[in-house]
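[agent] plan:
  1. take the single chain provided in the ticket
  2. run structure prediction with default settings
  3. attach structure tokens to the ticket
  4. add a short note for the reviewer (M.T.)
[agent] executing step 1
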Amino acid sequence: MSEFGELLYAGDTDHNKNGYAFVLLGALFFIVANFIYAKMTAMIFGGIFIMGGLYLLLFKRSEKFAIYEHGVVVTSKGQEVAIPKNQINRIEYREIRGRRTLVANYYPVLILNDEKRIFINKAFNSVINQEFKQVVESYL
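[agent] step 2 finished; step 3 output follows
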């Protein structure tokens, strides 16, 4: 993608975290099954969690994106979508708060000239992903 200039930021979106959590929870069920009376029930639940985690890791892979000087490239489901910088009208932020957290997470939403919205599933706040935050805020 050299036609978009210098690479400012490249990364994955936040989809893989749930898959890892499900696989670890399933493995924990298998380990705990050796110490409790209802071994088969714990093994069945462990298998279900591991299968769900593997499904998320293998089939619901995270999307990749790259922010260049003159454009943004989003790779989703094997398809690469290139958006030139002159087609981006503005960047809005979607604020999402967790239930028991004091810090809100912000997700960038690219608003194109034809009012089409492209959501980038990469969070930033005052604690995490500061480099991504600086690149997004200074992009336009």
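[agent] step 4 note for reviewer: The chain has a mean pLDDT of 86.
[agent] ticket updated
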